[in-house]
Amino acid sequence: MQADVVKVMQECTDASDQERISFPEVVTKLMQAGVERYHADLLRAEKIYYLPSGESHLVSAAPVDVIPAIAFAADGVAAAVRAIQQKQIEYRKFCERIAQAGCVGYMVSLAGRRAVYYGRTATVTSNLFLSQPDWTYGTTAVRSRPCINAAASTACLKSASLNVVTTILPKSSRPVAASAAS
Fold first, then answer.
1. What does the pLDDT average to over 14-25?
2. Is residue 136 exposed (0-12), middle (13-18) or buried (19+ Cβ within 10 Å)?
3. Per-residue pLDDT tens digits for 90-119
4. What is the DSSP secondary-structure string of the chain?
5. 78 and which of 3, 43, 53, 164 could share a cystine (Cβ 3.0–4.6 Å)?
6. Of 55, 23, 47, 50, which is closest to residue 36 (Cα–Cα)?
7. 100 alpha-carbon distance from chain centroid
8. Which fold has domain 3-170?
């Protein structure tokens, strides 16, 4: 892996931990460096960055001062996402809040424009984003988790718990419902 790419990975991690950079800036820098995706492990305090070639690089991150809750609360994660998007909190507080909501890690697919947050039991919620410098936030859609019992799908969908999916659109776009697979 090229040293300049590793340097960008380290700089993005350090700048995030020191609250000197926003998520849109991280996305832009990583995409320009050729990074395809990354995984943040809140318990181990590390991020692994991946290139399309299959190469990966591990970077130590600042530890989160909160032990993640046992139960995963997608609405708590969504509230933390909204708070950081609206600049009500910074990255360190964001990590604490998603941990309080039971999140133990998250994956960001730069190519897929999606962040997936997961809990101890692999319960997930995801957020879609665009890589534009003029992002706007707040369009929210709701989706059901897929039903395990296909024969009872109607009843299952009626009783299924819901995940919140926040879609980030360019300022010039009209709001549209987001669709995301679990």
1. 94
2. middle
3. 999 999 999 999 999 999 999 899 999 999
4. --HHHHHHHHHHHHHHHTT-S-HHHHHHHHHHHT--EEEEETTTTEEEEE-TTS-EEEEE-PPPSSPPPSS--HHHHHHHHHHHHTTSS-HHHHHHHHHHTTEEEEEEETTTTEEEEEETT--EEEEE----TTEEEEEEEEEEPPPS-GGGHHHHHHH--EEEEEEEEETTSPP-------
5. 164
6. 50
7. 15
8. YdfO-like fold (3.30.1810)
Where are the domains positioned within the chain? Answer: 3-170
pTM over 0.85: no
Residue 143 pLDDT > 90, yes or no?
Answer: no
The encoded tokens of residue 47 equal 């991020």
Locus of tokens 């929210």: 140
Q: How many CB atoms lie within 10 A of CB 129?
A: 23
- SS3 sequence of 137-179: EEEEEEEECCCCCHHHHHHHHHHCCEEEEEEEEECCCCCCCCC
